[in-house]
Amino acid sequence: MRIAIAGASGNLGRRTADDILEKIDPTDLVLVTREPSRLAAYAARGVAVRFGDFDQPESLAPAFAGVERLLLISATEIGRRVAQHVAAIVAAKATGVGHIVYTSITNPSPSNPVVVAAEHRSTEEAIRASGMAWTFLRNSIYAEIQVGSLLPALTSGQLVHNQGTGSCAFVARDDCAAVAAAVLATDGHEFETYDVTGPELLTADRTVAITSEVAGASVAAVAVDDEAYASGLVEYAALPEQLASSLATFGRAIREGHQAQLSNVVELLTGRPATPFASVVRANLPVAV
């Protein structure tokens, strides 16, 4: 079976490629990217590296030719992703792809205020309507993203957040890659939706406590409302107002309980436990410090 990863040069794409190459022959893997030169090391191993750009739909059919199972990694540009994803879905269907695996988010429901929920929901709907078999990997918020906001707090001594007392099972990116590789390389996942989460639900207070313990520092969690959180991102991180407001929706979603999913999917599909949050902190601490 020929398997393709679309969006292969990103962090999740590379990690998934590394994992799946432990399970399949390199000649059975196709990596699709806008920048093939970035994946030259994989080409040297016998992997087919093909140009494909979601913004150039005509490039996608040649990129997916001969592929039976496709991992569609969500694009990154908010506001443009649905059109980009639909272009990939149409091309996959036209070239005979039988099964599409899509990286979505936990709980992309209409009630979820997180800014990306509607785009993921629309993409899932388009895939369902395509007639292809599908698997949705609803990944929780990456632990690395949460750690990225915590590490600067080691200097300031405060983590300002708008998560309230809500919780989220932050998931390591490596675990998402391992799950994706397992689904791509094995049968029996058609028409399944998997919540891919970390091993424990964590509040902001708890993530701060874990980070403080690992780093040997004292950090306090300071809860604010959405407006104050977004304003702080503009004032202190120099982010554009629209981006700051978009980022604030993640904390709101956690606070309101929309991201409180907890599953054993990582262990169930990979055979190993999900990575603890403390391990992600520890792995990223030397880089930041």
CATH superfamily of one domain: NAD(P)-binding Rossmann-like Domain
How much helicity do the residues have? 40-55%
Label the CATH architecture of one domain: 3-Layer(aba) Sandwich
Q: Which residue ranges are poorly predicted, with pLDDT under 50 across at least 5 consecutive positions?
A: none
Reading the helices and strands in chain order gives EHEHEHEHEHEHHEHEHEHHHH
Describe the overall structure:
There is one protein chain. The protein is α/β, with parallel strands linked by helices. 45% of the residues lie in helices and 15% in strands. It is built from 13 helices and nine strands. It is globular, with a radius of gyration of 19 Å. It starts with a strand and ends with a helix. The model has no long low-confidence stretch (mean pLDDT 95).
Compile the SSE list and pairings.
Layout: E1 3-6, H1 11-20, E2 29-33, H2 40-43, E3 48-51, H3 60-64, E4 69-72, H4 81-94, E5 99-105, H5 117-130, E6 133-139, H6 143-150, H7 153-156, E7 158-161, H8 173-185, E8 192-196, H9 204-215, E9 220-223, H10 226-237, H11 241-255, H12 265-270, H13 277-288
Parallel strand pairs: 1-2, 1-4, 2-3, 4-5, 5-6, 6-8, 7-9
Helix pairs in contact: 1-8, 4-5, 6-13, 9-13, 10-11
